[in-house]
Amino acid sequence: MTTMRNEREEDGVALETSYFFFDEDFAVELEKSTRSEMDSNKILFTYPTQISIMNHLTFQGRKDMASVSKNFRRSDAIMPYRVPDVQILKARQRDRGRIDIGDYGITFAPSTNGGCSSTFRCRCTVSGGYVPDDCKVSMKKWVQHHFNRRGTKIETLTLEGFPYCLEDCTEMEVKHLKMLNVDNPHPTESTWFPGILTDSVRTTFLFKDDTFLKAPVIKFNMMIGDEDLIPLLRAHKITQIATLEIHQIIFYANTFVQQKRPIDFQFHFEFYRSRDSHAFLLKATGLEAKRTFFRNTKCITIEGVHAELNIIKKDEGVIKWMMGLMAPSAPAKTAKALDAKKKVAKGQRTTHKRTVRTSVHFRRPVTLKTARNSRYLRKAAPATAKMDHFRVIQHPLTTESAMKKIEEHNTLVFLVNNDANKYQIKEAVQKLYNVKAQKVNTLITPLQQKKAYVRLTADYDALDVANKIGVI
Q: What is the dihedral angle through the alpha carbons of 354, 359, 362, 368, rounded to the nearest 10 degrees?
């Protein structure tokens, strides 16, 4: 591991020393004058092929601040680069919430993303040394201060560049990090974090150096939509990151055995989505990775990143962890093997019951036919019958032949609709005149009109009915 140290003055302001960390395998030959020996009190954490330096430059007598961020990747020619570090100042109200803690070079600076009040980000810069106990308390107070001061509901909280994500600070990050469809408002290690991939996703896992090898306790926060970051997994040439088929992840970190307090390591990876919208689920702890569905979208479910660990110690104290997702769990394989064993022991010979047929015809089975059950009405108002009794009978006839039928044959004569049948005529007479018809005869006249002869039953007299109607 190579460390570069730079000192710089700008505009009469003395800037502190900046440290940059490069891996020996990826770094190019640097000038001997810029090299220095590893200082365990200064170097605390580094990324393998990408180095994110997020420093906030403050000028004397001004309120605004500028941020400098540089990314290095494996394909870039890494040359000596000078970035001004933070000028140590005490916390002041005019600095818009900026807090500098003592002489430790730790700076917290709030910033908004695209002017959206529901998104809140901050960056932490550490110039050297490890964070003492008083700084841990200040981290927690600083986050609480800004949540209470804004007075708005913050949907997203992103803490960038925090190499000291302690227990109290990490829990606060997770509690105020709102994800989609999270049942538990205060996520823990066993909470599912669903989300949809946007332009880029950065996930940070936090480990304890002592407990990670025994029983990994993984906590993470997630930032969505950072377009300036370089995909770390792509630099490692991992197969098909867009489809979430992660086979191996290489992680480099410094170990400091000489320090008697536990250090939090960060496992950092990035990936970009393809044109299709992929959904994913991440679980904080677990044993295996499996394919599932989330919102009808195929995705990979990573129940933690517990994997086979190949630990290779180097002379410089760097541990190389090559992590690959575990195969399906052993019980599933055992059940499948036992099922195959039973089938082999049983053999291929089986007895079949002969079907008795009594017909030479083969017919398809009668399937269920359900009535229509529409979810909404196809018509706003129910349709009425077009051929009602008022339309069936047009008017009675009062000709001499019709009167003769009434007197001699107890029969009424009507002109009816051409489309009406005898059943409709009989029903219409019953409804209009409240009499029962014994027989109905019809004919079509030369004028193309339908004439109906309705003979009443013996209980009714055609003369009385004609008198009521007004025919006579």
A: -90
Residue 338 lies in a domain: no
Query: Does residue 187 share a domain with residue 139?
Result: no
Per-residue pLDDT at 468: 92
The whole domain housing 456 covers 389-469
CA distance 385 to 219: 71
Domain boundary among 155, 178, 201: 178
In this predicted model, what pLDDT tens digit does every residue of 201-224 receive, in sequence order? 333 333 333 333 333 332 333 332
For residues 8 and 241, the model is more confident at 8
pLDDT at 331: 59
Identify the CA nearest to 126 among candidates 21, 256, 268, 210: 21
Torsion region of 244: left, alpha or beta (phi above 0 gives left; psi -120 to 50 gives alpha) = left
Contacts of 24 (CB under 8 A, 6+ apart): 1, 2, 316
Mean pLDDT in residue range 276-281: 28
The span from the CA of 45 to the CA of 232, in Å, is 16
Which amino acid would we find at residue 304? G
Q: Indicate if the pLDDT at residue 32 is higher than 70.
A: no
Can you tell me the mean pLDDT for 29-49?
28
Residue 6 lies in a domain: yes
Global pTM reads 0.26
